[in-house]
Design goal:
The protein is an alpha+beta fold. The protein contains 4 helices and 5 strands; from the N terminus they run E-H-E-E-H-E-E-H-H. Helices cover about 40% and strands about 30% of the residues. Strand 2 and strand 3 form a beta hairpin. The protein binds flavin mononucleotide.
Length: about 140
Amino acid sequence: MFLELAYSSKAVPNLCDKDIQAIQSTSSKWNVKNDISGCLIFHKQYFVGILVGNERIVRGLFLDLASDLRHTDITLLAKENTPWRQFDNWNMIFQVGSNKTKFLPTGKLYKNNIIGLAQIVEKRTYTSRIFWNSVIELMNDKSA
Ligand SMILES: Cc1cc2nc3c(=O)[nH]c(=O)nc-3n(C[C@H](O)[C@H](O)[C@H](O)COP(=O)(O)O)c2cc1C
């Protein structure tokens, strides 16, 4: 069995490119080593993430994440045990519309691509539906 866990949070106001890159590089190394897959979306000042893997490891990682000073308002959106792994081979950060960050494209087309992806990607569980719905909401939220 795998644990799937979706969460959202708000980046601290001074979070910059380097912080995002640091999160990405720590996460991709650690997650591969610990057989965790998932997806992290960063749009303007908000994160929406999903983690999939061994139950004990995902719980431990989420506790670590929750005490990370680079974000606040950490909210557990949904979690469930699943017999199959979703987000196999996924380990990425999408980032849209931040003027402070330049290493990924920004703008309407990119935003629409993320929304398109969120709409078509297979969602076999409640938790993944909540995750992708939150991504769509975040992309469409004018204030975010
Ligand atoms: C939004 C967000 C998502 C993160 N996702 C992961 C992740 O998937 N895997 C990971 O190892 N660290 C992730 N981190 C970093 C962890 O919070 C933490 O820095 C890392 O586990 C190293 O912990 P340590 O500094 O106590 O050694 C994330 C941080 C933030 C702010």
